[in-house]
Fold this protein.
Amino acid sequence: MPRIFGTRLWVILLATIAFFMIGWLWYGFLFMEKWMALEGMAIDGSDAPPPSQMLVGVIISLLQALGLAGIMSMTGKTGVKTGLKVGALSWLFFAVPLMAYRWNYANGPAELFHIDIGHLLLGYLVMGLIYGLLRKPAA
């Protein structure tokens, strides 16, 4: 199986799917009504994203999974503690500031910002956990 950043491709794909599914659960069930109301979307489902938008979501998830795999590779370490640390620090120093830009300049409600960064925190920690458990050093 090919490796990218020293990580087996299937592990990166697993992290991608996990991150995407967390978003699906987060925005599709746990915070759906609140998030849609804050975004000004109709709760009746008429604002459902088209398939092309969902595909872009998968690609964005893949890019984030690749980024975390690259950072894990640069640490030269493996293990759950390293994976969680990389996930948490990547969230804090990359994801949160990028979402803060959106929130700051869009003048959106703080509650929307909290929902979005909560999703990213859980997603980055789960991806870090997957890498910590399954990423093995190249032989």
Q: What stands out?
A: The chain has one domain: 3-134.
